[in-house]
């Protein structure tokens, strides 16, 4: 039995329109889902176990904004398992559930002082200089995924139309779990990054591999290392994400309405 089969057996066979991956401290969106069916990742084949606080490790299927959605309440990160393919199973499953698109969210640090904690940034593109790719080891020509428009322009425009105060920028993936050094933040900014973080990029690549459209939103929880006086910690990341969660949840619910 595939993960998609297991999900249908418990949540019904109606197709999912939109998948949403919830980043650190953003799991509260699940409470807005109506007629929700909650399935622990541990019950689903090829789903990872997330060991990071703020990541529930459950799939929530139901209705949000009038659309049938699949919420991935928690993700597995490369730094937990040393495996860039950790989210392959979930991305394949939501594609098999017939989702049109996936909205990826994360908590991120800003390389721009003007885009401080509490800001939301629509991801326009990303940088991946890690040498890691979740498609390494996949067979056939399908693995050569075109990433020239990884973050769908129409979906980005839809997000920006819902909240005129959204920023837009480039997200740079660092593997973590240690935070970036001031020199790394300066280098990322010099290369065009507006935000830095430890997730999302592998999921974007996998989503495109499985034919899903991608939109992404970074919740800015801190200024990057060297740009502010506040010491960086996961606790601080979660606290700032909690403060911005209501705004993100409202944005995600209104975004889901476009898939109803």
Q: Can you walk through the features of this model?
A:
With 260 residues, the protein is α/β, with parallel strands linked by helices. It has a single domain, classed as Rossmann fold (3-Layer(aba) Sandwich). Helix content is 28%, strand content 25%. It has seven helices and nine strands, in the order H-E-E-E-E-H-H-E-E-H-E-H-E-H-E-H. It has helices at 3-11, 78-81, 88-96, 153-162, 182-190, 201-209, 234-257; strands at 18-22, 34-40, 58-64, 67-73, 101-110, 120-128, 167-173, 195-197, 213-223. A five-stranded mixed β-barrel has the order 5-8-7-6-9, surrounded by four helices. Strand 7 (167-173), helix 5 (182-190) and strand 8 form a beta-alpha-beta unit. The longest helix is centred in the C-terminal third of the chain and has 24 residues, at 234-257. The two termini are 29 Å apart. The mean pLDDT is 94.
Explain the layout of strands and helices.
Elements: H1 3-11, E1 18-22, E2 34-40, E3 58-64, E4 67-73, H2 78-81, H3 88-96, E5 101-110, E6 120-128, H4 153-162, E7 167-173, H5 182-190, E8 195-197, H6 201-209, E9 213-223, H7 234-257
Parallel strand pairs: 1-4, 1-5, 5-9, 6-7, 7-8
Antiparallel strand pairs: 2-3, 3-4, 5-8, 6-9
């Amino acid at each position: 039995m595939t993960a998609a089969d297991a999900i249908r057996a418990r949540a019904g066979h109606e197709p999912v329109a939109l998948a949403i991956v919830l980043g650190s401290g953003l799991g509260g969106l699940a409470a807005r889902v109506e007629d929700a069916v909650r399935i622990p990742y541990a019950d689903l084949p090829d789903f990872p176990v997330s060991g990071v606080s703020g990541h529930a490790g459950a799939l929530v299927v139901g209705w949000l904004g009038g659309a049938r959605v699949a919420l991935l309440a928690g993700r597995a990160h490369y730094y937990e398992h040393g495996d860039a393919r950790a989210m392959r199973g979930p991305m394949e499953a939501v594609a098999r559930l017939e989702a049109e698109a996936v909205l990826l969210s994360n908590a991120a640090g800003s390389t721009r002082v003007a885009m401080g904690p509490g800001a939301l940034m629509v991801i326009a593109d990303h940088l991946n200089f890690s040498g890691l790719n979740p498609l390494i080891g996949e067979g056939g020509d399908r693995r050569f995924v075109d990433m020239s428009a990884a973050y769908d322009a129409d979906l980005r425009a839809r997000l920006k139309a819902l909240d005129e105060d959204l920023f837009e920028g480039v997200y740079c993936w660092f593997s973590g779990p240690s935070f970036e050094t001031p020199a790394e933040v300066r280098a990322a900014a010099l290369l065009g990054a507006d935000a830095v973080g430890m997730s999302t990029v592998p999921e974007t690549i996998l989503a495109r591999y499985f034919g899903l459209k991608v939109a992404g939103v970074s919740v800015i929880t801190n200024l990057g290392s060297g740009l502010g006086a506040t010491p960086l910690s996961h606790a601080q990341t979660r606290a700032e994400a909690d403060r911005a969660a209501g705004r993100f949840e409202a944005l995600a619910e209104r975004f889901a309405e476009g898939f109803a």
